[in-house]
Design brief:
Keywords: Kelch repeat, Repeat
Pfam families: He_PIG, Kelch_1
Organism: Hydrogenophaga borbori
Strand order of the largest sheet: 4-10-9-6
CATH topology of the largest domain: Neuraminidase
Protein name: Kelch-like protein
CATH class of the largest domain: Mainly Beta
Number of domains: 3
Strand content: 35-45%
Number of helices: 1
Helix content: under 10%
CATH superfamily of the largest domain: Kelch-type beta propeller
Structural class: mainly beta
Shape: elongated
CATH architecture of the largest domain: 6 Propeller
InterPro entries: Gal_Oxidase_central_sf, Kelch-typ_b-propeller, Kelch_1
């Protein structure tokens, strides 16, 4: 008969003394040894296990069709037996399950996404987060040219997806011509001409699908106050009420109630008079009403975007009789108040687009700096473009990126990647162009029409595929 023996087993918060038989004693001793070994960072094989996992580039920006530099995994404290990732890496990239290295050539665009990489070892696993974005250069295709090339025109998406090109400078003066581009057939057709020849007007699409075109320059750079409406069903133009003030290079935005807010602009001929007023167009009555509060600074060629909620208009930069306007303001769309805010940017012509997080991206022709306004903090964050551009087109892409294309002497284009606040090169256009017009098509492509080079209209239309 064998006497029973004393043995100790490890419980989470105590040591429990109990009597066991010889077999149980051996099993407990083995388990205790394994637990102690794991607690000391080892495993059954005696190889130290990893305590941390990092990557050479934990936040990476890749480009479709371009092989990436190997992104190596780095383990601290020991080794791992296998690597896994969730969710799956961007299409075209591969995780080496033995080394954790990421290699390959991305094949599809991806906004910034967090991927969890796990490195497994006998005692458990360690994890790290990768934040990966895939952008693209895109490609341009030349398509049918508009019957009469022009610059400083307007381009508006009609309810059925066709694009209306109206007005502009052509053949040495303001034009009343209007044409429609059909993305499905890739062809142009003539629309009814406008009632008034006008260059550099503003245009917005109303809630009922009609297009309001207003202001701009007549012959001799005499500024217009008149407005007209295009009905795409009837293919007709109808005069509507005139603005209270003639304007060129003003901004216009459709409000949440369907009315149209117009601010600033200038009036010619020289010497130019710059406006600080705002007025609202009511489609139901066809009339304009001047709002009671003027802008804090008169300005034209400024940036203007509605902020989330639709009650405030961000107005930034521009020019007036004193030169570049370096201020910005938050204008209440009901005309009740305006609040000046810091800006610091400057330029002759400002462009802007609203981003999908509610912020606003602003560019100018004064250099390579762009600015992003955060309405939650009322702060600006700068970014640096690849090149300075005079009178390019700026288009918000369907995936939230921004295309900046052309400008004086430029065929190049670039992409703003909002998740990283970084600009990357895009494919170049076939033709140099400035003062062109651009609009996003329903399939996500961008249509860029005409423009000018040294005052001569560009007889070219191109489509950009992101």
């Amino acid at each position: 008969m064998v006497d029973s023996a004393m043995a100790y087993s490890i419980a989470p918060n105590s040591i429990v003394k109990k009597r066991t038989g010889p077999a149980a004693w051996l099993r407990t001793l083995a388990l205790s040894a394994a637990a102690l070994l794991a607690a000391c960072g080892g495993n059954h094989s005696g190889t130290p296990t990893a305590t941390a996992l990092t990557y050479d580039t934990p936040r990476a920006l890749y480009v479709v069709g371009e092989s990436i530099a190997t992104n190596h995994a780095r383990l601290s404290g020991g080794s791992a037996s296998a690597f896994t990732v969730s969710p799956a890496l961007p299409s075209g990239l591969t995780l080496d399950t033995l080394t954790g290295a990421i290699t390959g050539t991305p094949t599809a665009l991806q906004r910034e996404t967090s991927h969890t990489v796990s490195a497994s070892h006998p005692a458990g696993s360690v994890q790290t987060q990768l934040r990966l974005t895939v952008t693209g250069r895109g490609a341009w295709t030349s398509v049918a040219t508009v019957p009469t090339p022009r610059h400083y025109a307007t381009l508006s998406r009609l309810p059925d997806g066709r694009q209306l090109l109206a007005g502009g400078y052509a053949l040495g003066g303001p034009s009343s011509e209007a044409d429609i581009y059909d993305p499905a057939s890739g062809s142009w057709s003539a629309a009814a001409p406008m009632l008034v020849a006008r260059a550099d007007p503003a245009a917005v699409v109303l809630a009922d699908g009609r297009v309001l075109v207003f202001g701009g320059d007549a012959a001799g750079f005499s500024t217009l106050a008149s407005a007209e409406l295009y009905d795409p069903v009837a293919n007709t133009w109808t005069a509507t009420g005139s603005m209270n003030e003639a304007r060129t290079r003003h901004s216009a935005r459709v409000l949440t109630d369907g009315k149209v807010l117009v601010v600033g602009g200038f009036r010619g001929p020289a010497p130019l008079s710059f406006s600080s007023t705002a007025e609202v167009y009511d489609p139901a009555t066809g009339t304009w009403t001047v709002l009671p509060t003027p802008l804090s600074s008169a300005r034209a060629q400024h940036a203007a975007q509605l902020l989330p909620g639709g009650t405030t208009l961000l107005v930034a930069g521009g020019v007036n009789s004193g030169g570049f306007v370096t201020s910005a303001e938050l204008y209440a769309v009901d005309g009740s108040a305006t609040t000046p805010i810091a800006f610091g940017g400057s330029g002759n012509v400002m462009l802007s687009v609203p981003l999908d997080d509610g912020s606003v991206l602003v560019t100018s022709d004064a250099g390579t700096t762009a600015w992003r306004f955060d309405p939650h903090t009322s702060t600006w964050t700068p970014s640096t473009q690849n090149t300075g551009r005079l009178l390019p087109t700026m288009t918000l892409l369907a995936d939230g990126r921004v295309l900046l294309a052309g400008g004086a002497g430029q065929t190049t284009a670039e992409i703003y990647n909002p998740d990283l606040n970084v600009w990357t090169s895009a494919a170049s256009m076939a033709h140099v162009r400035q003062a062109a017009v651009a609009s996003r098509l329903d399939n996500g492509q961008v249509l860029v029409v005409s423009g000018s080079v040294a005052g001569v209209e560009v007889n070219s239309t191109e489509r950009y595929t992101p």
